[in-house]
Amino acid sequence: MASSPPKKTLNSQSSSISRPPQAVKFGRRTSSGRSVSLSRDDDMDVPGDSSSHTDYINYTVHMPPTPDNQPAGSSGSTSDAANRGGPRNKMERRLSVMKSNNKSMLLRSQTGDFDHNRWLFESKGKYGIGNAFWSEEDDNYDGGVNMSDFLDKPWKPLTRKVQIPAKVLSPYRLLIVCRLVVLFFFLWWRIANPNEDAMWLWGLSIVCELWFAFSWILDILPKLNPINRATDLDALHDKFEQPSPSNPTGRSDLPGVDVFVSTADPDKEPPLVTANTLLSILAVDYPIEKLSAYISDDGGAILTFEAMAEAVRFAEYWVPFCRKHDIEPRNPDSYFSLKKDPTKNKKKHDFVKDRRWVKREYDEFKVRINGLPEQIKKRAEQFNMREELKERRIAKEKNGGVLPPDGVEVVKATWMADGTHWPGTWFEPKPDHSKGDHAGILQIMSKVPELEPVMGGPNEGALDFTGIDIRVPMFAYVSREKRPGFDHNKKAGAMNGMVRASAILSNGAFILNLDCDHYIYNSKAIKEGMCFMMDRGGDRICYIQFPQRFEGIDPSDRYANHNTVFFDGNMRALDGLQGPVYVGTGCMFRRYALYGFNPPRANEYSGVFGQDKAPAMYGRTQSGASQNSQASDIESDTQPLTDDPDLGLPKKFGNSTVFTDTIPVAEYQGRPLADHMSVKNGRPPGALLLPRPPLDAPTVAEAIAVISCWYEDNTEWGDRIGWIYGSVTEDVVTGYRMHNRGWRSVYCITKRDAFRGTAPINLTDRLHQVLRWATGSVEIFFSKNNAIFATRRLKFLQRVAYLNVGIYPFTSIFLVVYCFLPALCLFSGKFIVQSLDIHFLSYLLCITITLTLISLLEVKWSGIGLEEWWRNEQFWLIGGTSAHLAAVVQGFLKVIAGIEISFTLTSKSAGEDEDDVFADLYIVKWTGLFIMPLTIIVVNLVAIVIGASRTIYSVIPQWNKLLGGTFFSMWVLTHMYPFAKGLMGRRGKVPTIVYVWSGLVSITVSLLWITISPPDDVTGGGGISV
């Protein structure tokens, strides 16, 4: 500690009454910044007799000794005046404290700690202590305080919650309660007032309305607490990529990320689309040495393999170009298709030249990709012809120079460019070379990048990359082994194979899962997600789900392909509970959570509505798991559901010790930074600065071994570990199992869309896509993954949301019946109520108004448009009467008869008309899913005609029943309008089968009704006179 400069003392004037020395001075600070002393001043001339009642009346105000109000007088004169014992003036009294020799009184408070406020206003320092000014003379002060204490920036969180405004959310919740009350009284009135004239109509309508009310409650309850979130990328950069005592070089301390892309069929998922997705990944804004990309080709197609090799070669120019000019988006096809000015906000003089050169290279790249099928076939023909000539020559040598009578048989193989057989699927399938029977393939096409940046030069392929890092992240092509007799579990099995292979090769603590047609639209998307994982409490997050955004959708979004009601409404609301569901793509997982482990901390919710929260007890679960270690060979599906097997510990990872050794490493690297006392389960700064070990032949061989078809035998892969098997919607089940263990997830909506992809705009493809989703939901309902059997770690409203996932397809049964009710009313001349009295109309009006207001407020807090909401309502009816109904039938067939469910891979290719980007929209491909919606349309149209005819020609027309039936029939037809428009095709070209089916239904319905209710001579009851 440097000694303080000597302070001159000021002798106090003797008082008439001796008092003990005062060690503490009391004061307050005024609004003007002055310090007001409220202490008894020994130097004040106060008579002893009156001191008792004037001690705190007389006080002294003294100014802080800042440079602009330093004392005018010299210290010597002040001291002389004090020694003379004469009365002191105001300035001398102001300096009484400053001249005190009691240093502890100045520097410390009553608790003994350093008193910053006192030092600021009563010390010799000119401005006190802080990061704005520091005296060079007094480098250290009493208490160990120095300038270094103020150099570090204050701790900042990486994310924050943005609450929905109360002026929107409070009325929204109030209206939900009001509609619940109105629904209750309406249904009570409906049950208490049956229609005696048409009990069958009344009964059908009551059952449907009760189910609709139940379904609406399941859908609306999880929406009570929607929230928004925001990230701070600057804070992430300051914490993990800035020089610090633990990171002197400023190298990135972020954890590793492995990006998975899955594809299966190059005919339905064009290799050019997959290659563009890969290029957007390799060019992402994330530390290059921490990023790895993997392509899972489940078809083992050489076309995909060759296309990925071409993409890696093009990436050597594309990736540095993106970094140099800050290109967005970094998918070359999307970037060069932008309609806006490409030079906007570009400042480097060589941008136009570089862009023109890269555009030409990309055009050549596309031509090479498009020509690969023909090139590979020609190569195969040449090599097969060479092999045939070789075999003929050998046969002649063995047969005395003559060919055998039966000729020479040569296998028509598929060849690689180096003259070797392709180990995957051949063009002409053969044993060991077909889609379901081929060897495992793992090819590292882009090596592990160096730890330090590699700067380019002025002549990097006609481009100037001076000062630009030209490294490319590691990339590996993976095609798992497939053999007959093994259940390969479709996409879930492919993803688990990549999890194991990537753990051995790169072992990124986090995994980003993308479909082959979903590319990275925001180059900082991974960092946005990392803000949540690395923030306080991030160790409890199992995955970050990003919304799905689509390109190539028709402007009117006829079939609600954008699905904004779900992604901006339902998912945002679930984020306010335990987190959004996993939707299959655009999701960043914590690798440790995928391995089936429990979160470091979790809560259990008890009570009827889960209102009682308590910390989960891990000791009991782990001890129970250890006690049952001897019975670990028992399959988990034989255990009763009440034992909650999800809460145990995973044990069976397979026989690869190299893989199991990576598990604790991945867990440690995924922890948040322990830079604040509130961060639990953190890691020290600078722990991830070491370089990645280089890959060698034994490591790659081990990675190939873990993607073999037999590796998962007698393991927990697919049951507890990794993606869960047993459902065509493995994504929802996988997310549910994580939430069931107590993990939580986060919904990350970025200002610039994180990812973008394609969606089927054709009606048939769209319905088949919805059919697959609904079929998976039915499977969930009939499985142990039903939310009814969830653990107490699942919040009540989160349980309701997952319960709705399994129940919503069953609404189709009641929806189909309800769509036929208006037609039945028009046919019979009856209605669902006895009469359109004031009670029915009042209830109907209240329900409609509350539903409309709730929808408007939901549109307000979710940010969706009214047209998007209306399209969603229309397609809900279309999908509910077609795909959902078929899914329920398939689900019952699987449960009752054991018939497996198959689904068609969604095509990513465009229509035949290359000039029209929406050509697929007008293609009509007949499917059985059209039958029920078409029947509903035709029956309602015929019913309107019959009902109108009966009423017009009736002696006593009942217009109220006609209006009621016609109104509800028009409600059905209005919702079916997009379906009817889709059947018309381009320019009204309706397929012949639609006319045939419509006429058949019309004739059948008319004849059926005439048979059931033949016309008679009495017309008063509603019959038609003949």
TrEMBL record:
Bias (Polar residues) ranges: 9-19, 29-38, 69-81, 620-641
Pfam families: Cellulose_synt (PF03552)
Sorted UniProt keywords: Cell wall biogenesis/degradation, Glycosyltransferase, Membrane, Transferase, Transmembrane, Transmembrane helix
Keyword Amino-acid biosynthesis in annotation: no
Tree of life domain: Eukaryota
Sequence intervals crossing the membrane: 174-192, 198-221, 801-832, 838-857, 929-956, 962-980, 992-1012
Protein name (database record): Cellulose synthase-like protein D1
UniProt source species: Brassica rapa subsp. trilocularis
